[in-house]
Amino acid sequence: QVQLVESGGGLVQPGGSLRLSCTASSWTLRYWSFGWFRQAPGKEREGISCINSRDNSTYYYVDSVKGRFTISRDNAQNTVFLQMNNLMPEDTGIYYCATDLEEICPVRGTRDNYWGQGTQVTVSS
């Protein structure tokens, strides 16, 4: 049973922006750290970013997204976001959110039921 739902993906031109959302309808996200992952065509899934629950510290694991992507959370909306600016074709892929139900980063994706189904991001002119 999928516990998380991502949304916000789509087709965007290079240089454009998207904001991905990750939410749950039946439980509270505020206590846990969350990670965003992506899987590019023909490549393995990689961890992009993580946000703690204790102090909202953020981490970025892919050099190419630093300065362009921002992870955040709004506990009132029960949602974790990934703001993606200045998108490039190499950002194309399926983006997932996940949690290990731990308070601190990193998220390793160890709980199968705590991954979303993914949202497709395509950056192309």
In a nutshell, what does this entry contain?
Strand 4 and strand 5 (46-51) form a beta hairpin. The chain has no helices and ten strands. It has strands at residues 5-7, 10-12, 18-23, 34-39, 46-51, 58-60, 69-74, 79-84, 93-98, 119-123.
Give an overview of the whole structure.
With 125 residues, the chain is mostly beta strands. 0% of the residues lie in helices and 40% in strands. The protein has no helices and 10 strands. The protein has strands at 5-7, 10-12, 18-23, 34-39, 46-51, 58-60, 69-74, 79-84, 93-98, 119-123. A 6-stranded mixed sheet has the order 2-10-9-4-5-6, with no helix packed on it. Strands 1-3-8-7 form a 4-stranded antiparallel sheet, with no helix packed on it. A hairpin with a 6-residue loop joins β4 and β5. The N and C termini lie far apart (36 Å). The mean pLDDT is 95.
